[in-house]
Amino acid sequence: MKWLKESLSPATATNGMMKYWKGNFQKSHELLSKAKRWCPEVVENSIFEGYLGLSLYRLGKVDEAMPLLLSTNRYLKENPSPKASVAEIESQVLEEIKEILGKENAP
Fold this sequence. Notes:
Shape: globular
């Protein structure tokens, strides 16, 4: 059964990211959390971790969201994708994370 969860984890995480884009932050959180439970290495240090953090933030769980947002911000800046389509998504998530971090660090 573990192999099945590991193989479904990327698709589940992608579905969670798409739910975020559609504004369904609760479902996004549920799917991304499930993908992380099933296969942590799919979500950790990836754009999916950023969307998990963004979902948590939009649900008002700022304390849980901030470490994920900071980690994703750092990781994506240090490891940009060479693929243009992925780089575009990364820049969108980084922009949203930067906006949130600016709000949270404002006096």
